[in-house]
UniProtKB/TrEMBL annotation:
It comes from the Bacteria. InterPro entries: AIM24, AIM24_sf, Trp_RNA-bd_attenuator-like_dom. This is AIM24 family protein.
Length: 226
């Protein structure tokens, strides 16, 4: 019986975080190197790993999540192998080397607890969507795992004058040093996004990347308010 299943066995550990297939994250846990992960994302583990839902450090920062976009997090600590997933979504692993990433909270799966993180308003969008858009910014030295509803595309903005336009409901993450602004598109409202009311896009320019998923979020992130 084991022979037909041999191809699905865990692979040797080569990094702190890595993919096991397209839809699962494997984390090599060590004492003193804690992890923050989405509540409910644990699907299996080996060794001795403890979980603390909504730890005090998370509660303090989550107070800024005034828009309800926050993802409930748990602290994972101990030694062993931890496997995480989010309802079959694709998993994207990033190793931050002193840089940062701005992530849609619904696409955040896990990240090293030692990274600097917080919730902040995306500048330049309030006039398009009332209170604007809030994202989670993560920076420092460490690992981050994102989810994408389908195989994502990573667009390199290239640092030129040309702008990259993204439907905000399909946006996963972007380099925080990029310039961001909103754009209305009246004529294209039946072709871009969901077509409910005015169509909005987010325009990115500068040096950095934008991660886009091939499936829109369940609720419009930008919309006319008031």
């Amino acid at each position: 019986m084991n022979q037909p299943l041999a191809g699905y066995a865990p692979a040797p550990v080569t990094a702190r975080m890595e993919n096991h297939g397209d839809h699962m994250l494997k984390v090599a846990m060590q004492t003193g190197n804690d992890l923050l992960a989405r509540v409910g994302s644990m699907i299996a583990y080996e060794g001795f790993i403890q979980y603390e839902p909504n730890p005090s450090a998370v509660r303090q920062i989550a107070r800024d999540w005034a828009t309800g976009e926050g993802a409930p997090l748990m602290k994972c600590s101990g030694d062993g192998l931890l496997y995480l997933a989010d309802y079959g979504a694709n998993v994207v692993v990033l190793n931050l080397n002193g840089d940062g990433i701005s992530v849609n909270a619904t696409n955040l799966l896990a990240f090293d607890a030692g990274l600097t993180w917080g919730v902040e308003r995306v500048k330049g969008l309030a006039k398009f969507a009332g209170q604007g858009l809030w994202n989670t910014k993560i920076s420092g030295q460490g690992w981050v795992a994102l989810t994408s509803r389908g195989m994502p595309i990573v667009v390199d903005c290239g640092g030129g004058d040309d702008e990259t336009y993204v439907d905000p409901d399909a946006l996963v993450a972007w380099s925080p040093n990029l310039k961001v602004k909103g754009k209305r598109s009246f004529r294209a409202q039946s072709l871009i996004g969901r077509g409910s009311g005015e169509a909005y896009q987010m325009a990115f320019s500068g040096q950095g990347i934008v991660v886009v998923q091939p499936s829109e979020d369940s609720t419009d992130r930008l919309r006319v308010r008031g």
